[in-house]
Amino acid sequence: MTHKLVFIVYPGFQLLDAAGPIAAFEMANRMKPGTYELILASPKGGMVKSSASTTLSTTPFAQVFNADTFLAVGGPGVNEASTSAEMLAFIGDLSQKAKRIGSVCSGAYLLACAGLLNGKKATTHWQLSADFKQRFPDVLLDEDRIYINDGNLWTSAGISAGIDLSLALIADDLGEPIARHVAHQLVVYYRRPGGQSQYSELIEMGMKDGRFANLLDYIRNNLGKPLSVSDLADQMCMSSRHFARCFASEVGTTPARAVERLRVEAASAALESGNGSIQVIARQCGFTDIERMRRAFIRIKGVPPSAIKCHPRQSD
After folding, report:
1. pLDDT tens-place string over residues 119-172
2. Nearest one of 42, 14, 36 to 23, comparing CA atoms
3. How many whole angstroms separate alpha carbon 273 and alpha carbon 43?
4. Where are the beta strands (DSSP E) in 73-180?
5. Residue 72's beta-bridge partner residues?
6. Nearest 5°: phi and psi at 47?
7. What pTM value is reported for the model?
8. Which of 40, 56, 129, 183 is deepest in the core (most CB within 10 A)?
């Protein structure tokens, strides 16, 4: 049975918010022909210009009567789109007929304005979280998740997270093996668990330009070493106590937690790329044993290393 999937777009939508998921569902269709019917819908139909000035052909709302799943995409034009009575009425009507509803990035604003997120767990791009919380206090927003599933509601974070969401939906429809194969064909790492953080600690800490910037680089390049507080204090020519106090104040976390987070990020990248066994990666990243790495992953990412490790490619 064909699954009708409608993408809701508008002038100023983010191209990748639509194109990324479409590519994933297209690939699933190649593996299981006829699984998905993909429709781009806009208020008036015709060619709709994205924020990149690239246009896509769309079907007018008046010709879209139902959907099994619909996804509202995000983009700079979402603020104007979310004030459109026609847009909100269409979303409200379609939500009564669809088995699943969802959004990519700031597309969550459309669902929220249509009243579909009240009392629901949802996410959106981290940069929009403060504004979103202020405007929609009844939404249970989790600003640090790649995607969230609450009943028949699916919401995802910024731009590329729409691909993660799509892979999760494909797994829901066709099973994990197909979703994994789609990821391989798209040349993306096997889908990240929805509970994984939007932030990369390697990037976030690397943005610090204070006196500990060079030390953070040293940690990244020496994860296999013990990296105790005393070792790091020596690198800074400071006493251990003074170093620990200054580091926590400037970086926002303790030296031990910073080292652990950087180890987890490095290990996660290695696991996703299939670069070695869990045992080898644990040793290379400075974890004394697999169990310690497992506990660190669960504490920081909410999932064990086995949930992130890239699985062998299936034959085409």
Report:
1. 999 999 988 988 999 999 999 998 777 889 999 999 999 778 899 899 999 999
2. 36
3. 42
4. 100-104, 121-122, 140-141, 147-150, 153-156
5. 8, 103
6. -80, 125
7. 0.69
8. 183
